[in-house]
Specification:
Two copies of one chain form a homodimer. Chain A is mainly alpha-helical. Chain A folds into two domains: 6-68, Orthogonal Bundle (Arc Repressor Mutant, subunit A); 73-189, Tetracycline Repressor, domain 2 (Orthogonal Bundle), CATH 1.10.357.10. Chain A has nine helices and no strands. Chain A is elongated and about 65 Å long. The N and C termini of chain A lie far apart (71 Å). The interface between A and B is large, with 40 and 40 residues.
Chain lengths: 190, 190
């Protein structure tokens, strides 16, 4: 038996990982988290289950990887004022909430209600999404633009909450103007 | 063959409908909307599928009935001020969000992303939940307590959104005090 060229092995590994990710994205978008089983990912991607488990030891690890790639972490803007920064972040979240990720997220939240491993995944993805908000609020508090006794999570909830509400409840359009208004009102309400 | 006494038939119908509802509630709470199939409801309740379909012609009809019973429509409070009314409504929603319904709702939202019939169910349940808010806002606008150009749905989103955010994202406690603060800030932010 010929010994494989290591470069060719790397290339083969890269391709099968890519095929697994593509199949996982497809299933996530079509059916939500509940639609992703390692069996089905293997069937769609043509990659053997043993190979999938070599790269992702559990279904949760595969889901975490796929979900992290669907939700690139937003950068903290630096517009010169906390009002501008929060408006920019609200706009960027509104954009994300019209994309592919937003139709997957309810299935993550649903699974998190019942499965502690997926609850941890949800918390981790959410913390990553919120890091930029915490940076902006922390900077504004350090500069004295925001009172130190304002809980960052209250302000974040006052912006994220109405955006989520529009996306999943009232289903009104998530325009950038609506996002800016939400951020302004959250700041004014403090 | 003896002809059944009509009262006894009614009683038998009542009992089998009750058994079907109890099985549906159980499945909804354990597994969310995705866990409710007419097959499984039949198995758990011991009621034949044909009988279930006689009372609820579709799975969606059964789900709508069960979900409506889980989410009693809130009454519009009348405390004498819009601030008091909104705080009372926010408290009542916070109470609901710590109950059984709140662990089912994400599965409804998830299903609504993909299934138009369940999207209609979600919209209908949501409208019922929000009717009291619309009544309070409409009354305050009629009395001149709130400007007429405030969109009720923006104010509702500024209260409901942060409550939902706490329940499903930050997972901070949904205390009545937190609910009142959210309502106050939403009103002040306008």
């Amino acid at each position: 038996m010929a010994i494989d060229n290591p470069n060719r092995v790397d290339e083969r590994v890269r391709r099968s990982k890519q095929a697994v990710m593509a199949a996982t994205f497809g299933l996530l978008t079509e059916a939500g988290l509940g639609g992703v089983s390692v069996d089905e990912v293997s069937r769609r991607s043509g990659v053997a289950k043993t190979t999938i488990y070599r790269h992702w030891p559990t279904r949760a690890a595969l889901l975490l990887d796929a979900c992290s790639q669907l939700t690139a972490r937003p950068e903290a803007p630096d517009t010169g004022s906390v009002a501008g920064d929060l408006a920019a972040l609200a706009e960027s979240i509104a954009d994300r909430l019209t994309g592919r990720w937003s139709s997957v997220l309810p299935s993550v939240i649903d699974a998190a209600e019942r499965d502690p491993e997926l609850a941890a995944l949800h918390a981790r993805l959410h913390d990553e999404m919120m890091a930029a908000f915490h940076e902006v609020v922390g900077r504004a508090q350090a500069k004295g633009e925001l009172p130190k006794d304002v809980a960052a999570s209250d302000l974040i909830g006052a912006i994220m909450g109405p955006l989520f509400y529009r996306r999943w409840f009232s289903r009104e359009p998530l325009t950038r103007e609506a996002a800016r208004t939400i951020a302004d009102r959250a700041l004014r309400g403090l």
